Amino acid sequence: MVVKPSEQEEEYFARLDFEKKKKVEEEKHKKIAEEEKKRLKALHYMKCPRCGVDLIEVDYKGIKVDKCVQCSGLWLDAGELENVAKQEKTFLDNLFSFFTESDQR
Ligand SMILES: [Zn+2]
């Protein structure tokens, strides 16, 4: 089969068209992914990962601890575990007893 120049041209334009549509599709997907991220954040922000109920943020001596009232789970933000680990052992004891006592109240 002899390929005529016009056929090559058609193929070229078809490919251009495909690339253009592919880019539009990719942009659409990126936008959907961004919206999904925002939606998930709005849905899960400050919710217990176990129970899904609202977390209560307590600033305990400069360390923000998020506590679940349902399962009594304690959650720390990024870097806060390091801050806790740097503290004296008595600090940890006090932190734990603070949250244990608040459960009994
Ligand atoms: Zn919980």
Description:
- The protein has 105 residues and is α+β, with helices and mostly antiparallel strands.
- The protein is built from 3 helices and 3 strands, in the order H-E-E-E-H-H.
- It has helices at 5-44, 80-86, 89-104; strands at 55-60, 63-68, 74-76.
- The protein has a 3-stranded antiparallel β-sheet.
- A hairpin with a 2-residue loop joins strand 1 (55-60) and strand 2.
- The termini are far apart.
- Bound molecules: zinc ion (ZN).
- Zinc ion binds at residues 48, 50-51, 68, 70-71, 73.
Would you summarize the structure shown here?
This protein is an alpha+beta fold and 105 residues long. The protein has helices at 5-44, 80-86, 89-104; strands at 55-60, 63-68, 74-76.
Average pLDDT, to the nearest integer? 89
Oligomer: single chain
What small molecules accompany the polymer chains?
Answer: zinc ion
Question: What's the number of extended β-strand segments?
Answer: 3
Largest sheet: 3 strands, antiparallel
Find the structural class using helix and strand composition: alpha+beta
Helix run count: 3
